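Input set for joint prediction.
Command: fold jointly, output tokens.
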Amino acid sequence: GAGVSQTPSNKVTEKGKYVELRCDPISGHTALYWYRQSLGQGPEFLIYFQGTGAADDSGLPNDRFFAVRPEGSVSTLKIQRTERGDSAVYLCASSFSQGDNEQYFGPGTRLTVT
Amino acid sequence: DQQVKQNSPSLSVQEGRISILNCDYTNSMFDYFLWYKKYPAEGPTFLISISSIKDKNEDGRFTVFLNKSAKHLSLHIVPSQPGDSAVYFCAAVRTYKYIFGTGTRLKVLA
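tokens >
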């Protein structure tokens, strides 16, 4: 079956521009998570959705970052006025439910802000 | 304040021998712990988990040990195979939130 997919796989943008990163979770998974992985670091939690609602957005670094999941499936992470420090791999994961031990990760989107 | 630490950035092991990857944590309130494996250009894939009420969990060649008093867990891979070469992340979990370590790059030499 299909795993978590993320598009684009790579995104290069200029400082100050707006970007959208897309995540397609595994079908039937109600929980969806976004992480950011900087070079030499482990993934860092950004936001968690249960269904359509953002249950926890405490990991978003500032108000330039926003994520939506309007129909409880696909999610979009939106970054406004990008900065060079936003350059990282953005990972999406999904799980069957909140209590599920295992989160399934997508391959990530590598964002480079020049 | 790093709650989960993997102090060895890299490890090389001969094929057939045991690989031991270590992880330390600071918070006693974690519910369970996991190990993920990551190949280049791929997302992390789940390997094995352990509940905070257990001290050992085994799955084939992979065994995870948890020492709660020392706030330490380790992943043992035996025998190691070249296909095990990857970056390994430990993660500590409280409800749904994963806190990852910085990873250890394992290289298994043929």
